[in-house]
């Protein structure tokens, strides 16, 4: 252990780099840290010399982290999280909490969890602030780096979500899959069969971080792959397309029952075994050291 080298690096350096990895902006980082932009730049300059790496390079108007900076992001998160746990041993009081939570989810997932989030902001922790990010923008890597506290998402329970052992998956809502179609679809007055399901084109939902769902594998192995004409990032976009085409959309039932985009669409039960689907809360094991994040996770599970 190089104690002399370690003595030259302070938590001020590590905190500045941690925030920069989230914002990619000296100005925004300075606002978060209550520092001047010049102080943040000076701190980063010192850290560049100590670590012998540029840490960020400019591409147009953006600051892009180097591969080394991205590599040490999870380690930074662990160090700062452990230190935060040591400094905040008192009982957490949500009504006094004035910090920020960072969540990531699809837009359609927000419709499911909006009542919980509203209750937290209105009554339980009224002085807190919550940032909601798109999962496409900030996914599992963001959890590991500490950019996001919690990810909420629907998924196939048999779908191996990720091999990253640092991430914890907890089911918060049991759900089922249904097939949505327009009100004037030729299949509206018929019982949906596998043959009918496969005869029409489909709207798919892509998620680059999740593996192929069980129902897709089942169809391919026992029947044939479905014909996906278009893939979109969110349930709402898929439902809008459903209104204007004869495409079929395989969706979360809970979302379909409450989403405005799904109003007027016809719901049909799935004509084959599709396994189990759930909404899960995903968080970094280290986050439980943070009493505020631990409290948030408990509230989501309770609701």
UniProtKB/TrEMBL annotation:
HTH lysR-type domain segment(s): 9-66
Molecular function as annotated in GO: DNA binding; DNA-binding transcription factor activity
Keyword Transcription: yes
Record carries keyword Transcription regulation: yes
InterPro entries: LysR-type_TF, LysR_HTH_N, LysR_subst-bd, WH-like_DNA-bd_sf, WH_DNA-bd_sf, YidZ_PBP2
CDD domains the record matches: PBP2_Nitroaromatics_like (cd08417)
Keyword terms: DNA-binding, Transcription, Transcription regulation
Gene3D superfamilies: Periplasmic binding protein-like II, Winged helix-like DNA-binding domain superfamily/Winged helix DNA-binding domain
First and last residue of the signal peptide: none
Coiled coil: none
Pfam families (UniProt xref): HTH_1 (PF00126), LysR_substrate (PF03466)
SUPFAM superfamilies on file: Periplasmic binding protein-like II, Winged helix' DNA-binding domain
Entry similarity comment: Belongs to the LysR transcriptional regulatory family.
Name under which the protein is recorded: HTH-type transcriptional regulator, LysR family
Organism: Aliivibrio wodanis
Organism lineage: Bacteria, Pseudomonadati, Pseudomonadota, Gammaproteobacteria, Vibrionales
């Amino acid at each position: 252990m190089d104690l002399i080298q370690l003595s030259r690096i302070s938590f001020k350096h590590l905190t500045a780099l941690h925030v920069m990895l989230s914002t990619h902006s000296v100005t925004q980082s300075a606002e978060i840290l209550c520092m001047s932009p010049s102080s943040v730049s000076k701190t980063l300059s010192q850290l560049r010399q100590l670590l012998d790496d540029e840490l960020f390079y400019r591409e147009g108007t953006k600051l892009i982290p180097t591969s080394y900076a991205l590599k040490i992001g999870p380690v930074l998160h662990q160090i700062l999280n452990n230190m935060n746990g040591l400094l905040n041993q008192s009982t957490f009081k949500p009504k006094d909490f004035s910090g920020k939570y960072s969540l990531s989810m699809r837009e359609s997932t927000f419709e499911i969890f909006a009542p919980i989030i509203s209750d937290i902001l209105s009554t339980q922790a009224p002085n807190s602030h919550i940032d909601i990010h798109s999962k496409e923008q900030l996914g599992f890597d963001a959890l590991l780096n500490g950019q996001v506290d919690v990810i909420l998402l629907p998924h196939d329970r048999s779908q191996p979500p990720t091999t990253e052992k640092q991430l914890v998956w907890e089911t918060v809502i049991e759900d089922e899959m249904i097939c949505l179609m327009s009100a004037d679809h030729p299949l509206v007055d018929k019982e949906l069969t596998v043959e009918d399901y496969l005869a029409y084109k489909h709207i798919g939902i892509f998620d680059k971080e999740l593996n192929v769902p069980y129902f897709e594998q089942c169809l391919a192995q026992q029947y044939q792959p479905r014909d996906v004409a278009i893939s979109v990032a969110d349930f709402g976009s898929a439902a809008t397309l459903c209104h204007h085409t004869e495409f079929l959309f395989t969706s979360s039932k809970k979302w379909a029952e409450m989403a405005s985009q799904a109003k007027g669409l016809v719901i049909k039960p799935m004509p084959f075994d599709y396994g189990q689907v759930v909404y899960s809360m995903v968080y970094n094991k280290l986050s439980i050291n943070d009493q505020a994040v631990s409290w948030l996770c408990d509230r989501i599970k309770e609701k």
